[in-house]
Design goal:
Length: 242
Amino acid sequence: MYLTIEQVLERNKTRGYGYDESGKVRPLNSKEFYEISCEMGLNQDNPQYRRMFDKFSKWVVRTLKVKTGLEIGSGPGYFLYSLNKLGLETRGMDGNSFSQAYFQSKHPEFANRYHLDPYFEQSYGEVDVLLTIEVFEHINDEGLESVFKKIREQVKPKVIVFSSTPYADPNPGWDEQWGHINMKPIEAWDALFAKNGFVVSKTIPPITAWARMYVNEAALNEPKYRKLLEKQSWLKRKLARL
C-alpha cells in the first residue's frame, strides 16, 4: 500500500525528513525526495504509474512522429524508458543521483540515456521534442531564464510537451518540502513560452488537465509542425491513446 501525502507528512515529523534542527519546514534533500517518491508509488514499481506513462508515451510517439527527444527532470525515468522502447531516441537529465541509480538498475539497456545534470549544464544538441512533466514549478524565475536560454540557443526543439501544476497543495508544508517554489497559472506559462518563441497548441497532452503542447515559431513553416497547433479530433485522440 502506497502512502498518501498526509501519511508522508506525519511520518516526516517523526523521522525529521523535510525539517531542520529547529523543527522548521525545509525542502527535502535528494535522498529524502527519492525515498518518499518510492513510498508514494511514483515510479515503475507501481503498475498504475507504468500504465499511465506507457499510454502517454504512445500518444507522444503517434502524435508527434518525431525521432529525437530530451526530457528535463526524468525522476525515476519510466517515461524516458518508455519513449526509448518505442523508438523515440530520447535522453533525459535530472539532478537526483538516487533516481539515476534506480533507473540504471531497472533499465540497464538505456543507462547511458540518463544524465546526472543538476543545473542543466551539459550539452545535448538539437532535438525534435523537449518533454518536461511536473518539473518547472521546482525552478525559480532566475533559473527558468537560464533554462529557456539554453532551450532557445542550443536544444531548439520543434515541439515542447509540458506540464506544471498550477495548484497549491492543501496540506500545510507539503509544497515547501516537495520543492514547489514557482507555481504559475496556465496562462502565465503560455505567456512565458510565447516570450521565448513557442506557440501554444489547442491540443492538451493526455497526462494532466493543465498540460500544454508548444510549437517552435521557427518550425511553423513546416506543415507537419504547423498542424500540431490544431486540436485533435475525438477519434484521433482516442486512437492515439490505444
